[in-house]
Design a protein that fits this description.
By secondary structure, the protein is α/β, with parallel strands linked by helices. The protein is built from eleven helices and nine strands. The strands form two sheets. It has a five-stranded parallel sheet. Helix 4 packs across helix 5 and helix 6 packs across helix 11. It starts with 13 loop residues before the first helix and ends in a 5-residue tail after the last helix. The mean pLDDT is about 95. Bound molecules: phosphoric acid mono(formamide)ester. The site of phosphoric acid mono(formamide)ester has 8 residues, from helix 2.
Length: about 300
């Protein structure tokens, strides 16, 4: 079997993204017809060293819907032999004896690359520290395609904790694959992308600007991508307390957005989206979470049945 790790969103060309989205469309139809036995006899291991609801459960549901089985370590920091000091490399060397695919979430940036360096089965990065969350970006872009109907010529605002947000980081990278994208990075200065990231986005062809307040650009946005302030990544609790609640969408902000705007969030949310927003047709974040299932079905199928190209 050809080994195919999924580590960074940048490894996908535009053509590969479009093929994946077509595959995800077909997975939705497959679910409607009761699922598949295509991956009968195959085993996926989910190794999660950080908490998760959506990513782990949607990967596991995806494997079940495709007829496969899984092994799950949901709190590996406390319940795996990591407690005894086992390295991620050694854990992967062991788990690959039991599974055909390993889905890994880890608190350390680059952990998925370390795992892939020793793996004989595919590794899927389900989030590594502040660095990347590639499968989240894939489902985010798929959701934009479903909600807006196009992926070129969009004005996108990514709002919130960009400094610590791996979902924001991966989404910004993935947007480089599309044409005529205007990207507003909307955050307090302490939570903005750093200069290296800004240079990378500009080199990648994005028209990008940093602004501090959503009000400044709300009326221009086709997509508003909200993120939470990531308390767990702050060294100084006082800074977290100062920054939390410094931005958000409430009914008043909704009135500033285009009627056609789409509001996304990787979730979980805290108070950056008021619950009253949920019933607005522009609020797409729960539909977005649903797409996590079909995109991950398409990814698992792709990884375990790689095409020759
Ligand atoms: N969006 C996301 O990664 O959610 P979980 O942390 O619940 O997996």
């Amino acid at each position: 079997m050809k080994l195919k790790h999924i580590l960074d969103v940048g490894q996908f060309s535009r053509a590969e993204l479009e093929a994946l989205f077509t595959e995800a469309d077909s997975m939705e139809r497959l679910i409607a017809h009761g699922g598949s036995r295509a991956l009968g006899g195959r085993v996926m291991a989910t190794l999660f060293y950080e908490p998760s609801t959506r990513t782990r459960l949607s990967f596991e549901a995806a494997m079940i819907r495709l007829g496969g089985a899984m092994l799950s370590v949901e709190n590996a920091t406390a319940s795996s032999s990591a407690v005894k000091g086992e390295t991620i490399e050694d854990t992967v060397r062991i788990v690959q004896n039991y599974a055909d695919l390993i889905v890994l979430r880890h608190y350390e940036a680059g952990a998925s690359h370390r795992a892939a360096a020793v793996a004989t089965v595919p590794i899927v990065n389900a989030g590594d520290g502040k660095r990347e969350h590639p499968t989240q970006a894939l489902l985010d872009i798929y959701t934009i395609r479903q909600e807006v109907g196009r992926l070129d010529g969009l004005t996108v605002g990514i709002v919130g904790d960009l400094a610590h947000g791996r979902a924001a980081n991966s989404l910004a990278h993935c947007l480089m694959r599309f044409r005529d994208i205007r990207l507003y990075l909307i955050a307090p200065p302490e939570l903005q992308f750093d200069d290296d990231m800004m240079a990378e986005l500009r080199t990648g062809g994005l028209e990008v600007a940093q602004v501090t307040r959503l009000e400044e650009v709300a009326g221009e946005l086709d997509v508003v991508y909200m993120t939470r302030v990531q308390r767990e990544r702050f060294e100084a609790p006082s800074l977290y307390e100062r920054l939390r609640g410094s931005y958000g969408i409430d009914p008043a902000m909704l009135r500033r957005l285009k009627n056609t705007a789409v509001i996304l969030h990787p979730l979980p949310r805290l108070d950056e989206i008021h619950p009253e927003v949920d019933n607005d047709p522009r609020a797409a974040y729960f539909r977005q979470a649903r797409h996590g299932l079909t995109i991950r079905m398409a990814l698992i199928y792709h990884v375990l049945h790689p095409r020759d190209d």
